[in-house]
Amino acid sequence: MAAQTTTRSAPPEQIRAVPVRHPGRWIAAAVIAVLVAMFLNMLVTNPVFQWHFMIDNMFTPPVLRGVRTTLIMTVLAMVIGVLIGIVLAILRLSPNPILSGAAWVYVWFFRAIPRYVLLFFVGNLGALYPSYALGLPWGPQLMHALGLSGDLQFLHLNGNQIFAGFTAGLIGLALSEGAYMAEIVRAGIQAVDPGQSEASAALGMSRGATMRRIVLPQAMRVIIPPTGNEVIAMLKDTSLLIAVPVTTELYFQLHAIGARTFQVIPLAIATILWYVALSSVLMIGQYFVERRFSRGFGTRETRAQRAARRALEVGGTH
Amino acid sequence: MSTPTPSSAGESPADVPMVRAEAVHKSFGHVDVLKGIDLEVGRREVMCIIGPSGSGKSTFLRCINHLEKINAGRLWVDGHLVGYREKGDKLHELRDREVAAQRRDIGMVFQRFNLFPHMTALENVCEAPVKVKGTRKDAAHTRGKELLDRVGLADRMHNYPNQLSGGQQQRVAIARALAMDPKLMLFDEPTSALDPELVGEVLDVMRGLAADGMTMVVVTHEMGFAREVGDTLVFMDDGVIVESGNPREVLADPQHTRTKAFLSKVL
């Protein structure tokens, strides 16, 4: 060891080798540059694009209200979908075969239906029954048989009101999202080392406390990244609300302007730009949320990252 | 506290052994892992269980706090049947809550530590007293600091498990089990996952526990620890107890050929 340290005391001369040339990269760059130039040229020279018309119509009050509706719908559908997903995942992992079977059937059914079709169906549920009521099962029949007045129903809803517009769209998207979130949450729960539940059980903690305090917090690290993808997918899927239809939503508004003015391409481009912009904002948010949760777990990677950052900071102060 | 157990709710008389196993059988599918285990662990006794891997020693340990359900036989801890209630000539399974109540009094230390990675050392130690026993947070913190000090980790209490060495993590795991004031401690190969140089610090803590009179069942490969600290040594092979007795005598002069063969490889 001592001999080694003495020989190492004089650092060897830095290697200054001739780097390998990459002519393929230069050719590829040239080809792509030409393609981009052609594309930009087309955007400027083709009059069908109607850029001024597009910009004039992109920020009108109905469109901005549509943006607001789309964002609210995305958030609400995801919140309800995540809650449904957590409940389904816990049911799915339950030792009770009825509960786990019911959760499986839910996921199977709602994953099998295209969202567009589901939204169309929910939007027309008012035609199935004109009114809906919450209460005891067969309450009216029971009270009738006992010769009593009343129907044991507590809440009466007009089917044509709740299964229309925003509510119908929210119900459809949340039910569908719940099925996907159930699988994501289940994967997260199953990714937690079973030794964690064992240690918790050995300490005398109940199943519920083990799930809440030990398993779910650790599952979050696995659940968060795909959930971020689901949020972005949900944002885009709000455009399917045209099947309900939800008239206040972004795509419906832009589509309507395009159809009314016969300027289909400019409004289609406006639609693309709006969704790209909104998705980009969400992706930035996703980045920060993921970083926060992986830090909270103190995994080895983040520790190494932290050390690397510190090293950089120390280097930077010189 | 108010666990509905058939016998008296108070302290069991001192002559009842801490652990008693009668003809305990356990199988996983068609594989018989335990084929009739009979043993008794007295109060303040330290029992070490040795044997080749697959001999069923860890499974037996996990049966003691009902992490595994036994298929036949009877198992008592402190006079109470583990996982079941006997009514007439029938056994009734205990509810989850009752099983949890039994486990509160039995500390367990795992080979892979199983610390909660999203909690600091102190939070790991305080979690169960606060959530299970309802201890007040400040009282739990005071006690948690004492326990971490006892295992020599007072200065690391705000560290997360992955910022600790294996030996330190296992000492936190021991403190976490002690925080529930168990009357029995189970150790499932507590030093097998450690670098050799870290084994000593964990064994030191266990030695201290034994000296304080804790009843301990230790599945281990540390023959030195078994000889020095153990009151009883049990050698298991193929789901049965082959030989048991005073550790110094068994290790020095094994009676059974299988014990001799095993010890000749590990000593």
Number of helices of chain A: 14
What global shape of chain A is seen? flat
Overall pLDDT confidence of chain A: 86
The whole-number mean of residue pLDDT values of chain B reads 92
- Give the count of helical stretches of chain B: 9
Q: Tell me the total number of β-strands of chain B.
A: 12
**What percentage of residues of chain A falls in helices of 4 or more residues?**
over 70%
Gross geometry of chain B: globular
Spans where pLDDT lies below 50 across 5 or more residues of chain B: 1-10
Strand content of chain B: 25-35%
Largest sheet of chain A, described in full? 2 strands, antiparallel
Which secondary structure elements does this structure contain, and how are they paired or packed?
The complex is a heterodimer of chains A (318) and B (267).
Chain A (H helix, E strand, L loop, with lengths): L1 H7 L14 H23 L5 H8 L2 H32 L4 H16 L2 H9 L7 E5 L3 H7 L7 E6 H4 L2 H27 L2 H9 L4 H31 L12 H12 L2 H33 L3 H18 L1
Antiparallel strand pairs in A: 1-2
Helix pairs in contact in A: 3-13, 4-5, 4-9, 4-11, 4-12, 5-9, 6-9, 9-11, 10-11, 11-13, 12-13
Chain B lengths: L18 E10 L2 E11 L4 E5 L6 H8 L7 E6 L2 E2 L2 E4 L2 E4 L2 H9 L1 E4 L11 H13 L3 H14 L15 H13 L5 E5 L7 H16 L3 E5 L3 H7 L2 E6 L2 E6 L1 H6 L4 H10 L1
Helix pairs in contact in B: 3-4, 3-5, 4-5, 5-6
Structure commentary:
The complex is a heterodimer of chains A (318) and B (267). A two-stranded antiparallel sheet of chain A has the order 1-2. Chain A contains 14 helices and 2 strands; from the N terminus they run H-H-H-H-H-H-E-H-E-H-H-H-H-H-H-H. Helices cover 74% and strands 3% of the residues of chain A. Chain A has helices at residues 2-8, 23-45, 51-58, 61-92, 97-112, 115-123, 139-145, 159-162, 165-191, 194-202, 207-237, 250-261, 264-296, 300-317, and strands spanning 131-135, 153-158. Residues 298-302 of chain A have low confidence and may be disordered. By secondary structure, chain A is mainly alpha-helical. Chain B is of the alpha/beta class. Chain B is 36% helix and 25% strand. Chain B has 9 helices and 12 strands. Chain B has helices at 57-64, 96-104, 121-133, 137-150, 166-178, 196-211, 223-229, 247-252, 257-266; strands spanning 19-28, 31-41, 46-50, 72-77, 80-81, 84-87, 90-93, 106-109, 184-188, 215-219, 232-237, 240-245. In chain B, the strands form 3 sheets. Chain B has a 6-stranded mixed beta sheet with strand order 8-9-10-3-11-12, sandwiched between helices. A 4-stranded antiparallel beta sheet of chain B has the order 2-1-4-5, with helices on one face. The longest helix of chain B is centred in the C-terminal third of the chain and has 16 residues, at 196-211. The termini of chain B are far apart. Residues 1-10 of chain B have low confidence and may be disordered. The A-B interface holds A 193, 195-196, 198-207, 209, 213-214, 217-218, 296-300, 303 and B 65, 67, 96-97, 100-104, 106-108, 110, 112, 114-118, 127-128, 131-132, 160, 162-163, 173, 176-177, 180.
